[in-house]
TrEMBL record:
Protein name as it appears in the record: Cobalt transport protein
UniProt KW keywords: Membrane, Transmembrane, Transmembrane helix
Residues passing through the membrane, by range: 12-34, 46-66, 73-93, 144-161, 181-205
Organism: Methanocorpusculum labreanum (strain ATCC 43576 / DSM 4855 / Z)
Amino acid sequence: MSDIRFRLLTLVLLSVLSFVNLFGAAAVFIWWLVFGAKTTFAKNSWKIVVPVSIFIGLFPSVVLYFTGGDFFYGAKIFVLVLLAFWFSASLLPGELMSFFVWLFGQRIGFDLGMAAEFSVQAISEIREDFGRMRAALRIKGQKFSVSAVPSLAAGLLILSLRRAGVQSSLLARRGYCSGGAFVPFFSPGVYDFLMLGTAVCLYGVCLI
């Protein structure tokens, strides 16, 4: 039982709160530990989430440290990246289509929803392809290294372009032009209300 509308509103509130001040970022991080960490690590390895989040957050901190800016800005970015991992991991097939059709209608909403669903599907397929490539390297007795990144990236790009070409050809052959018929479906649960309610409470406390 999950409703993307509640999760998206929660994401917006927490994202804004994380940039209000350092206390807000700390509160959002605690929220993520309580509500988002389990979902995040259910679909993403901690070996990816933690290093990527630290690196993205550390870079602006280093730059601002030497330029005299807000050194703790990187902590806010770190929390924001964790939220992004949580939201992407919480997405279910068809949710983006339901959301955009509910928000913009059957024409524009359908097009936006289909594009969003294709994008999420492409990212998932890239992740799977990358996993298979790493497995192939292990079978060959080779280790993943920086020198292998260009060739792997080129392979992933070619595969993605081929899939996109096949999808566009299928849509064209079926006569797709624009818009479509889709009935949005949402199934809010208690956990959605709890997450949103906690985010609203944190927002109110940190802004008082």
